[in-house]
Amino acid sequence: MSIRNRLFAAAAVVSVSALALAGCSSDSADSSSQGASGDTVTLKVGASPTPHGKILTYVKDNLAKKEGLNLEIVEFQDYVQPNASLKSGDIDANFFQTVPYLEEQSKKQGFDFDHGEGIHLEPLGIYSSKLTDIKDVKDAATVGIINDPTNQARALNLLSHVGLLKLPENADLNVAEVAASREYNPKNLVFLQVEGPQLIRSLDDVDIAVINGNFAQSGGKSPKDAIALESTENNPSVNVLVWNAKSDKLEAIKKLDALLHSDEVRAYIEKTWPDKSVLPAF
């Protein structure tokens, strides 16, 4: 081969290689974009491990790819960090909270978040390692209760519903006010306020504890173990997907919200939690 021909051949190889590299670079860039048709959008979603994380994992493994979504599930053990992480942009959405909790936190923290419709409900329950009937709760009994205000109000309402407290309807009361009032607290119950995940571990230290469904599940409890259970009728405490109102991934987030309200997810919830510890809310 002449020197001239060898130079042409080398140039052709370089040109083809450059095109191949350009193609790879374009594919890589498009994979994280939301713009062009056929792109895969990665969403980082914060969630409580159970049931939220399990539901999201089902969506990730079975439904998300068809909608051009790649889910990265970030698990949180508390109710504070998921909203803080959403505000900072470390995650794109979160799935762990109720609308009343979101509204209360938004007033305090100035969050500018949007949310979808209810996805599921985890009935709040009263649990005990010492008693088998709510009627056996004695005067001055110790009650474990969550320490965040919104879920605390929900717990107080359940205690009132089963007759352990006497609260006026729609009262905006905290534990300290209730505990100090003989009118509201005729049995003189003693309240122990703890972090949500610690409630299940505190059962041996209290007479009863009011425990959120996800924390009860994490501790191996289900509604059949409760001595009293929250009603699902007209319950505002359904769990929702939440996202930043100014997110640049709104289209992808709304696709995820639609998947979380799909027939497939409803069937998954009903099959995975036949004990009704998790109930579809749509």
From TrEMBL:
Gene3D superfamilies: Periplasmic binding protein-like II
Protein name from the UniProt record: Lipoprotein
Keyword Chaperone appears in the UniProt entry: no
Location, primary (coarse class): membrane
Signal peptide positions (record): 1-22
SUPFAM superfamilies reported for this sequence: Periplasmic binding protein-like II
Topology of this chain in the membrane: Lipid-anchor
Assigned protein family: Belongs to the nlpA lipoprotein family.
Any one cellular-component term (Gene Ontology): membrane
Record organism: Nanchangia anserum
PROSITE patterns noted in UniProt: PROKAR_LIPOPROTEIN
Lineage summary: Bacteria, Bacillati, Actinomycetota, Actinomycetes, Actinomycetales
Lipid linkage positions (S-diacylglycerol cysteine): C24
Cellular compartments annotated: Membrane
UniProt entry keywords in alphabetical sequence: Lipoprotein, Membrane, Palmitate, Signal
